[in-house]
Amino acid sequence: MTRQDGRNHLLIAEDEPDIRRLVSKVATPQGWKVIECANGIQLLEAVPTLPLNAVLLIDIMMPELDGVEAVPELAKIAHGQPVYFLTGGMPVYAQIVRHLCKREGLNLQDVLAKPISVAAISAILAKHATASNG
Question: Coil, strand or helix: which one is 53?
Answer without folding.
Answer: coil
